[in-house]
Amino acid sequence: MAHPGAPFNLIKELVGFAKANPGKLSYVALGAGGTPHLAVELLNVAAGIDLVHVPYTVSAPAQIDVIAWRVQLMSDLLITAMPHLREGNMKVLAVSSEKRAAGFEQFPLSAETFPGFDVSAYLGSVVPAATARAVERKIRDDSVWAVNLQDVKARIAELGNEIVGSTPEEFDRLIAP
C-alpha cells in the first residue's frame, strides 16, 4: 500500500520508480521476519530494487506515517488498512497472494507482474510428534466444526480469508522443510 499521492499505482510502476531512485523509498511492516516484511524483501529480490524496511510493532502508527507521507509504503493485511483504503488515505499497489481473495477482487496481484510471486499465510494447529493420531483427529474434527459455524465462517470470509481444511498429513506436507 502507498500514500494516494505516490507517483506509482501498480507494482510495475513502483519498481520503475525504485530503480530510478535507489534507496529512496522506505516501507513499514510489522516486526522483522513476519509475512508482511518478507513479502517486500521477496519483492526486493525479484525486482532487483532496494526498498528500505522500517519496522513497526503496531499497525495504527505505521498507517499514520504512510498517510502523513513520512514513509512511502506499507506492507500489511488489507483488512487492517481497509478503513484508510475506503477513505482514500492509502492505495493498494498489489496483493501478495497467488489468487484474489473474496471481497478484495479489485486489487491487482503481485503475481501479475512477477509470475509465481505468492506470499500467503496459513493458519493451522500443530502438536508434538508423539501425539496419538486419535488425539490429532479429535483436534482436527473440533477445529473443522468450529470454523464451520455460520458466524465464524462469515467473519473469516469478511477478513478476506478462506477456509481450506485438510488432514494432518496434508498440513504436514505443506509445512515440511
Description:
- The protein is mainly alpha-helical and 177 residues long.
- It has helices spanning 11-20, 35-47, 59-67, 78-87, 133-147, 150-158, 168-175, and strands at 26-30, 52-56, 73-75.
- The chain has a three-stranded parallel sheet, sandwiched between helices.
- The radius of gyration is 18 Å and the shape is elongated.
- The model has no long low-confidence stretch (mean pLDDT 88).
Topology:
Elements: H1 11-20, E1 26-30, H2 35-47, E2 52-56, H3 59-67, E3 73-75, H4 78-87, H5 133-147, H6 150-158, H7 168-175
Parallel strand pairs: 1-2, 1-3
The helix fraction, in percent, is: 40-55%
Give the strand content: 5-15%
Structural class: mainly alpha
Assign an overall shape: elongated
How would you characterize the largest beta sheet? Answer: 3 strands, parallel
Q: What value does the average pLDDT take? A: 88
Q: In which order are the strands of the major sheet placed? A: 2-1-3
Span between N and C termini? 31 Å
| Tally of strands | 3
Which H/E pattern describes the elements?
Answer: HEHEHEHHHH
Helix count from the secondary structure assignment: 7
* CA-based gyration radius: 18 Å
| Uncertain runs | none
